[in-house]
């Protein structure tokens, strides 16, 4: 399977609390819901079709709990095409503390996470998708496990919150595979990791 990630971010790189005010209030974050109502019908269709082509899903603990309590539990959300895709596919969650996952068809990955994910990637099939899960996404990138990443950039600066990429960390070059902008100014870029970037020399 190809491991792909999809992340909604602001222009200043924040990914925290994109869905609603109560999604993620860590560290005093009060500007949640910045992605609600953004994007046009084409962007919403793109996102839905992405979920529908997943062979399986991989989550970090926090995003898994959020999704399980919404797409996995609320009847109206379960009936949505995204909910159907999530509920019908196998789900994997990277966690050292989760012992009794409440969402059906969930497997908790413990121990050597890199080996477990490499084993999943070696299976035949389409995409092993990661949505949200910022800490996990950064770890996957650092360990060269991401085949393709999609960034959906909402034209807003929120000025606080957890960013997808921290101020300091490993560097990474990317090749642009696809780019589009919708009628509301939301951009979608699909990248493939391309090793370390090149820097100017003295």
Report on this structure:
This protein has 202 residues and is of the alpha/beta class. It has one domain (2-193): Dihydrofolate Reductase, subunit A (3-Layer(aba) Sandwich). Helices cover 25% and strands 25% of the residues. The chain has six helices and eight strands, in the order E-H-E-H-H-H-E-E-H-E-H-E-E-E. It has helices at 41-52, 61-68, 75-79, 81-88, 113-121, 134-142, and strands at 2-10, 54-60, 91-94, 106-109, 127-131, 148-154, 174-181, 187-193. Strands 4-3-2-5-1-6-8-7 form an eight-stranded mixed beta sheet, sandwiched between helices. A hairpin with a 5-residue loop joins strand 7 and strand 8. Helix 1 (41-52) runs parallel beside helix 4. The longest helix is centred in the N-terminal third of the chain and has 12 residues, at 41-52. It is globular. The termini are far apart.
Chain-wise SSE layout:
Elements: E1 2-10, H1 41-52, E2 54-60, H2 61-68, H3 75-79, H4 81-88, E3 91-94, E4 106-109, H5 113-121, E5 127-131, H6 134-142, E6 148-154, E7 174-181, E8 187-193
Parallel strand pairs: 1-5, 1-6, 2-3, 2-5, 3-4
Antiparallel strand pairs: 6-8, 7-8
Briefly characterize the structure.
Helix content is 25%, strand content 25%. It is α/β, with parallel strands linked by helices and 202 residues long. Strand 7 (174-181) and strand 8 form a beta hairpin.
Count of distinct structural domains: 1
Name given to the CATH architecture: 3-Layer(aba) Sandwich
Strand content: 25-35%
Query: Major sheet: order of its strands?
Result: 4-3-2-5-1-6-8-7
For the sheet with most strands, the description reads: 8 strands, mixed
Count of helix runs: 6
| Number of distinct beta strands | 8
Query: Could you tell me the mean pLDDT?
Result: 91
Question: Could you estimate the helical fraction of the residues in percent?
Answer: 25-40%
List segments where confidence is low: pLDDT < 50 over at least 5 consecutive residues: none
CATH topology (fold) name: Dihydrofolate Reductase, subunit A
- Give the termini separation: 42 Å
CATH homologous superfamily caption: Dihydrofolate Reductase, subunit A
């Amino acid at each position: 399977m190809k491991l792909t990630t999809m992340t909604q971010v602001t222009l200043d790189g924040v990914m925290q609390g994109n869905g609603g005010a109560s999604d993620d209030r860590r560290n005093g974050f009060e500007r949640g819901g910045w992605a609600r109502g953004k994007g046009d019908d084409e962007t919403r269709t793109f996102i839905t079709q992405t979920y529908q082509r997943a062979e399986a899903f991989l989550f970090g603990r926090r995003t898994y709990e959020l999704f399980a309590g919404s797409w996995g539990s609320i009847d109206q959300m379960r009936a949505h095409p995204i909910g159907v895709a999530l509920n019908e596919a196998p789900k994997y969650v990277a966690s050292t503390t989760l012992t009794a996952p409440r969402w059906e068809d969930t497997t908790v990955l413990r121990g050597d996470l890199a080996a477990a994910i490499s084993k999943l990637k070696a299976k035949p099939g389409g995409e092993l998708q990661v949505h949200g899960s910022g800490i996990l996404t950064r770890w996957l990138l650092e360990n060269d496990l991401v085949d393709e990443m999609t960034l959906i950039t909402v034209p807003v600066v929120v000025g606080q919150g957890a960013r997808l990429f921290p101020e300091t960390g490993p560097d990474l070059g990317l090749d642009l595979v696809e780019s589009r902008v919708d009628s509301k100014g939301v951009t979608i870029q699909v990248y493939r990791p391309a090793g370390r970037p090149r820097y100017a020399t003295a």
